């Protein structure tokens, strides 16, 4: 956080950093499309590899990118 | 039905329940965007229709159970459908009762599911004699559906005015692909156009941000503040009918039944309208809020389930907002499912019932108990570990891949075009439903005009 604060925009109900979104989209699109195009064999194999690629992209971007949420715990909010 | 299929149905239902419990908690996820591409992909993989149906029902029950949880835990809706409940959940939160919110909402969901399944089979059987007539006039019905939904939206004139031009865009692209020999003349691009409409609002926002001036004028935000309330540990297994008072169970059941009967109308609209209507007379704010959230949650669940099941059992054409949205893959995922050959035609009523009951029970069992016990922990896990960027990225990846699969490289740009136009229309008050209906009605409509 710190100096990077106030740098996010709201898309689809949550806050994102555009640069991180670009990275996530690039990763997911290249893994999914790449998997589909490079997969050997006939249908539905390219689709399976492509879907796996998408999930790999999702997991790697989840590791690289930190969620833009500050979570505070409140005990007994009475 | 042999053992292998039953085993696959159970595994698919467990998978659906686990994945959509997590997606349901993620803030702001749109039901159509998160459910339709996955269901369509599973259909295209050639899985058995039993397995796809069980997966879908389990996923939607789990998603609808959990998307109201972040409302109670953090005051933000987990899905579009949970938005109307925020106001009432805030009343309970202000009275220091977030735990009550979670329990009332999930119990309402359970009642909605339990009412909607038998109600759907009943209503579907009543419609069944007219199914052939309805299918015969499908093009006309989709067109009137578009007009009808257009009249319900905020921006009626724009919605009506865009029906023919939007149909022209869709058929125009199809004819372009046929003309360029990108796809054979007997194939129709559907899936990727559908997803193009779905990602419209996101795509439009992103393309707007490519403009430097827009980028500078966009409000800059810090981290999203999420306050988690520590919820009390539950002992034993909660009984949804004991969580709710008799009156709450009653209005949740009534709301769910009415939600099933009005399956062809927009679930968000019905949820707001009936939810307020059935609770308006209650004076005490806490009682009113608690009745409202259990009723609305039951109603949205019921509307989703019956919106899927009734058209699926009776007609085989997607004739409800749920069926043209999240459940689209069960009706149309060419070349595997087409309007003439889909789950409706492949399975008997008994078989549809079996897959539905199996999927719903597994989701209720896993998600209801897990959510009631660990709502706080699961929400914290999702909020901490799943970045919103990765979710949007994943859907972008799926859409681009499916666009390429439908009609090659050129179609990636075709889908971007459809997404930008739909996003612009959506921003100006044209409902998704209108655009989906136009997508179905386009061939008929332009056949009529040319």
Order of helices and strands of chain B: HHHHHHHHHHHHHEHHHHHHHHHH
**What fraction strand of chain A?**
15-25%
Oligomer state of the chains in this structure? heterodimer
What portion of residues of chain A is helical? 40-55%
Mean of the pLDDT scores of chain A?
A: 85
Which strand order does the major sheet of chain A show?
1-2
The value of Rg of chain A in angstroms is: 17 Å
Helix tally of chain B? 23
Point out poorly predicted stretches of chain B: none
How many domains in all of chain B?
1
Looking at the structure, what is the overall shape of chain A?
elongated
Spans of at least 5 consecutive residues with low confidence of chain A: none
Taking the alpha carbons of the first and last residues of chain B, their distance comes to 47 Å
Number of DSSP E strands of chain A: 3
Q: Kindly state the number of beta strands of chain B.
A: 1
Structural commentary:
By secondary structure, chain A is an alpha+beta fold. Chain A has a domain of 48 residues. In chain A, 53% of the residues lie in helices and 15% in strands. Chain A contains 2 helices and 3 strands, in the order ββααβ. Chain A has a two-stranded antiparallel ribbon with strand order 1-2. In chain A, helix 1 runs antiparallel to helix 2. The radius of gyration of chain A is 17 Å and the shape is elongated. Chain A starts with 8 loop residues before the first strand and ends with a strand. Chain B has 450 residues and is mostly helical. Chain B has one domain. Helix content of chain B is 75%, strand content 1%. In chain B, helix 3 packs across helix 21. The radius of gyration of chain B is 21 Å and the shape is globular. Chain B starts with a helix and ends with a helix. The model of chain B has no long low-confidence stretch (mean pLDDT 88). Chains A and B meet through strand 1, strand 2, helix 1, helix 2 and strand 3 of A and helix 12, strand 1, helix 21 and helix 22 of B.
